[in-house]
Amino acid sequence: WEQRATIRADKITKAWSSNPAYGVGIACGPSRLVVVDLDTHKPGTEIPEPWKSFEITTGADVLDHLAGVHGGTITPTYTVRTVSGGTHLYYAAPADVAYGNTAGKIGWLIDTRAHGGYVAAPPTSIGASAYDIIDDRPAAPLPMFLLDLLTHDRRPATRTSQNRSQDGSRTQARPLQPIGSGEPLRDPDAYVNRVFDIAINGDHANGVAGLLDATKGGRNAALFVAAATVGKLVARDLITEHSALDRLLVAAAGHIAARAYTAYEAENTILSGFRRAATRSAA
């Protein structure tokens, strides 16, 4: 059906002349668009963790959390209010990558439409509701953090949760060493943020992988490594255990959504990593 999509004025005029009530559909692939579909929580359905604990009930808020975790920005772009009360964010797709559709891969209540997908567009109406434009600026380039999430499973092997020895064999994952551990800190907040950044995003310039680099088979180990790293902050009373746990659960939300582990299992792994850090700090 994508091959039938057209921008020819004569075909469009002929179709809508026969029935002005026709809706409008946009074939995302040929249009070089990635549309992020942010839904809302349906009353009566269960809210999964960790979002329930954070009292998050919309895809927009999930996306906002993920942007914060990844250090990204939700770039203002062409935006449509959907008939269900959700939001469509239209982004221009990179020229060198062909994305497909996703359902929940990025996060809870977030789907994406690209090649092989379409979206209903304004002024399409369904019953008493209609798709309405709420920001008519041109489609902005796809934000880097979204590009990263959509291509996460195709990252180079060097950016995984496993370390490799010089001969290419896998070595056991080990906790990162926080910068300057044991010495006085001039800026504790900056230090804490830097350690979290390394634990979650890695330090690829120095060959260190982070939690978000983990792929199938290594996600739980990567979570433990990140927790053991952050646990050193807890052991030094630079952050409370509760705050550290919350930040790591948010960072692990994508792996939870991918069913690598449940929120309960993630919490247990994180606490285990904290205990490991506390034991080593006391030694």
TrEMBL record:
GO BP terms in the entry: lipid metabolic process
Superkingdom of origin: Bacteria
Bias (Polar residues) ranges: 158-174
InterPro entries referenced in this protein's UniProt entry, alphabetically: DNA_primase/pol_bifunc_N (IPR015330), GP_PDE_dom (IPR030395)
Pfam families given in the database record: Prim-Pol
CDD domains: Prim_Pol
Disordered as annotated region, ranges: 156-187
GO molecular function: phosphoric diester hydrolase activity
Domain GP-PDE: 253-283
Protein name: GP-PDE domain-containing protein
Organism: Nocardioides panzhihuensis
Classification of source organism: Bacteria, Bacillati, Actinomycetota, Actinomycetes, Propionibacteriales
